Amino acid sequence: MKIVCIIPARGGSKRIINKNMCTVGGVPLINRLLMSAHSCTLVDEIYVSTDDEKIKDAASNYAKVLDRPIELTGDFTTSEEVILYHLENDLSHLQDNTIVLFLQCTSPFTETRDIEKLVYKITKEGYDTSTFYKLDRFRVLDKKSSIYLKIITFSRQVGNGWAFKKGDFIKERTRLYGNIGLIYVDSLKSLEIDNQLDLQIANSIYSK
Question: Which residue in 10, 72, 85, 108 has the most C-beta neighbors within 10 A?
Answer without folding.
Answer: 108
